[in-house]
Amino acid sequence: MRPDIDLRAYLDTRGATILLTLSLLAILAFAALGGLIQPAVMPEGTSDVEFTFIVLSLPLSLIIPVIVVMMTAGEWSDRSIQNTFLQRPGRLGVLASKVIAATALVLVVVALSIGLAAAATWVGGELMGEGAVFSSFESLLSTQLVVLAASLLFALAMGILLQSTVIGLVVAIGVPFVISTAGALTAAFGSEVVADVVRAVDLTSAASALGTGDAGAFELLPLLLLVVVPTVLGVRRWSLREVG
């Protein structure tokens, strides 16, 4: 495995430069929005790091799937995967390298986001408000990061299975949005059967429950249906798909 090769190959592209630049600008803007404006809208006049990171999770929910799908499925879409397999014949080794490289890049982006959320919260709370709240940092780690981890796993599964940048992005970004919308509509209409069906594929809610320790066996079903099964099928397709 050579994840460093896949990481360098991705970062050297013009598309990655544009995407990462726009991602950094979006993260900076949302960190400022969450951390600096809180004292003006909160009754206590404080700035809470968890709330700042919740605001930051909005762009991250788009940035993470884009990075992951482009790194795992991009070479299939532009047909350069043929050259990669000629230079590195072990298909599963190439796949593992891409997964490690994508995960490492996402971890860097998330770590940067946490640092900016903490900095914006401190500036907003201590210099512009009545104080900064960092006591919720443990809650941030146990809930928000678990939800982002679920987004990472789902995007990896879609990139590996679909092996198409466009289709992978549509599914990795669109499906969570559709499911969350369906969950809200189901709650409004009160149908228990439909609610259970939506709950069975609601990976975000399942991740939140897992993070807070409130999950039961049912919360493992979305992980099985949306991550484990697509990944297994995708690995098989990755191994057998004809190139060219």
Automatic annotation (TrEMBL):
The chain crosses the membrane at residues 18-41, 53-74, 95-120, 140-162, 169-195, 215-235. The keyword Transmembrane helix applies. Keywords: Membrane, Transmembrane, Transmembrane helix. This is ABC transporter permease.
